[in-house]
Amino acid sequence: MRELTIVWPFFQNLGMLVEQQKVWMSYAPEVRRRLHVIIVDDCSPEGQRPDASSLTATGLGSLRLYRLLVKKRWNWLACRNLGAAEAQPGWLLMTDIDHALPERTVRRVLDGPLEPQNAYRFCRVTAAGLWPYDPETLPPYKSHNDSWLLTRDLFFHERVGGYDERLSGCYGTSAEFTDRLTGVAEARVQLVESLIRYPREVIPDASTLPTVYTRKNDPDNDEELRQRKERRKRIPNWRPLRGLTPWERVI
């Protein structure tokens, strides 16, 4: 029987974490038992980081919390790598904390046809309020470039290798993982099932505020990313580097 591990990077998203758990607890017990959740906190500041009291959902196959111990900007690359390394063998769903899964989507992943050599994407809809609501009534939104359903073996395939943490600290680093993944996967398959996107108008901390880190149109960021990629080109037969940030398991 198939099980699923979901890896969610976290950074100052306590309100969104509460909402996520409300959604999980709405699943049927037999669905929850086959679901494993890994939260990786990207070194949130004191008072804005999750702990045992933040995780109240019950009945899951497992629920674990990890924390990076050194802060870098945009270190979700390390969060995803750590979550994948700590996950059990089988299927992984890598996405952002502001994306929730309706039960229909979870059931499709658990019981529908999947091929381990493929990488899967989802459609996306936008929440207009807090749970509970009917996901089928939500308006569609463009697909998310950084949400992937794939096996742990494919994530760590020698020609994929996870995310390259040399690029942590820069914005705009996901495309190269996509290129490596789609270069190895036999097919990139778009599923009709959706993820639910939460805008900050619904939950203020659903995603990182633009005032925390400059996201786009930052010439310093763009130049730093360019230089890092240029330095990397000079490494013979380079492979992604993982595990560059120390971490601890909290729960």
Topology record:
Blueprint: E1 4-10, H1 14-25, H2 29-32, E2 35-41, E3 62-68, H3 76-86, E4 91-94, E5 99-100, H4 103-111, E6 119-126, E7 140-141, E8 148-151, H5 152-155, H6 175-184, E9 188-197, H7 219-233, E10 247-249
Parallel strand pairs: 1-2, 1-4, 2-3, 6-9
Antiparallel strand pairs: 3-10, 4-8, 5-9, 6-7
How would you characterize the largest beta sheet?
6 strands, mixed
* Content-based structural category: alpha/beta
Helix proportion range: 25-40%
Termini distance?
26 Å
CATH topology: Spore Coat Polysaccharide Biosynthesis Protein SpsA, Chain A
β-strand number: 10
Radius of gyration: 18 Å
> Quick one: CATH class?
Alpha Beta
| Poorly predicted ranges | none
Q: How does this model look, in words?
A:
- This protein is α/β, with parallel strands linked by helices and 251 residues long.
- It has a single domain, classed as Spore Coat Polysaccharide Biosynthesis Protein SpsA, Chain A (Alpha-Beta Complex), CATH 3.90.550.10.
- The protein has 7 helices and 10 strands.
- The strands form 2 sheets. The protein has a 6-stranded mixed sheet, sandwiched between helices. Strands 5-9-6-7 form a 4-stranded mixed sheet.
- The relative contact order is 0.20.
